[in-house]
């Protein structure tokens, strides 16, 4: 029998209250040979603390998190470079991380992955050598909108008008992007930048552009299941920098609408680079978010911690994500053919 600390968010997701799922969940884990001790998250305390305590005690074989992306990333922070793996039971709203890892969305099937799946290490992002992110960081319009988006998700629908106004009034901002390698090597599209998207080259690694937003992704998805970086592979030691330039607002809305439905159309106004670290700065006070939480303003240095987190993943004998009924099925990890997606 294996022992697990199960950290559950009682309020994540939109269906029945999560505590009602517990009897079935514990029985399904038991059937996989896992005995789980439960701890509920609290609204005002990061569950990273619980995960850290588990690592220090050295008693449990794994940590299992039942929740959405917010809870998963907090718990993950307590397990970085730890010897024990993280199992994910996706009972949140969007479950981007579970989607990235190809996990079944049915939490009972996800229990089977914890009993019989494989353990692999995935990358984690870090900002300013301090804060961590699993999905993506962003500078510009998305960082401006995320806090309001969270309020809307929490039921404050009246905020939609404010979000709309903010988005429509937002202007492209001048930013300085410094990559950890020459621009030509980092660029993922070999085609030269169209002339209308001229950028000012400061050095072989550094350039200045005006953009509505820059997303630095560790995984393909962020936010409301936006497939923002279909090429992002979660264990390759690289972040995908996506720069949205000279988009009209409506173009951007259209683009985000289609990537929320898994349809990624290549657009020459999107530039992508793959790097292990990048620094974004600006003369303006542009906000920065990590996984949807604002952490301050630029300048920010973002880097990848290669394979810093052990996680359970499906293998050939366990259920995986079922793509029926979903217009936005996951792009699996780590599949080399993925590299073709937006080229
Ligand atoms: N016991 C609790 N009571 C109320 N709120 C809680 C409690 N524990 C955690 N929270 C809040 O839950 C939020 C995180 O929810 P989480 O991200 O897991 O679910 P979600 O938003 O439904 O899913 P997703 O992020 O996948 O869309 C945090 O804002 C956190 O403060």
Automatic annotation (TrEMBL):
Its cofactor is Mg(2+). Its EC number is 2.7.1.-. InterPro entries: ATP-NAD_kinase_N, Diacylglycerol_kinase_cat_dom, Lipid_Phosphate_FormReg, NAD/diacylglycerol_kinase_sf, YegS/DAGK_C. The keyword Transferase applies. Residues 316-343 are annotated as: Disordered. Gene3D superfamilies: 2.60.200.40, Probable inorganic polyphosphate/atp-NAD kinase, domain 1. This is Diacylglycerol kinase family protein. It comes from Scytonema tolypothrichoides VB-61278_2. The lineage of its organism: Bacteria, Bacillati, Cyanobacteriota, Cyanophyceae, Nostocales.
